[in-house]
Design brief:
40% strand; 6 strands; alpha+beta; 131 residues
């Protein structure tokens, strides 16, 4: 295999790893499993929610998600349409759509992933509600 083929193969493997992580995260949301969702977050994760709320840090987000699940909030999922692995192999850009499974709310999102010790973790997410 030449260098270009090796790079393409590597990037496809990394994209698939992120897609599988996203699927697992969606399943954790469906099961209201906060730890299952949080295992893909960096300690200093930053999230901007669909209505513009800003959340910084894994500890803060854990509290937000626990409260959300305690209220039996509607379940949502994120569906990636594009995952781009950076040439460095340590950063990735994910974009796609999100929607609630039981409500009419929907929108687009993007996420920044960082590979740390061989594991892809989410460093930031931006959600935009399109309703």
């Amino acid at each position: 295999m030449n260098s270009l083929n090796n790079t393409t193969f590597f990037k496809r493997q990394e994209e698939e790893a992120i897609r599988l992580s996203r699927m697992d995260s969606n399943m954790a949301i469906s099961n209201q499993d906060v730890a299952g969702v949080a295992k893909y977050w960096m300690e200093d994760i930053v999230v901007i929610s669909g209505e513009g709320g800003q959340y910084s840090g894994k500890a803060k987000l854990l509290k937000v998600w626990k409260e959300m699940f305690s209220k039996k909030s509607p379940s949502f999922e994120r569906l990636p349409s594009s995952i781009i692995i950076g040439d460095s192999g340590i950063l990735a850009w994910e974009s796609g759509s999100w929607s609630y499974k039981t409500e009419a709310f929907r929108g687009n999102y993007s996420a920044m992933w960082r590979k740390i010790n061989g594991v892809w973790l989410t460093q930031s997410e931006l959600f935009v509600s399109l309703d």
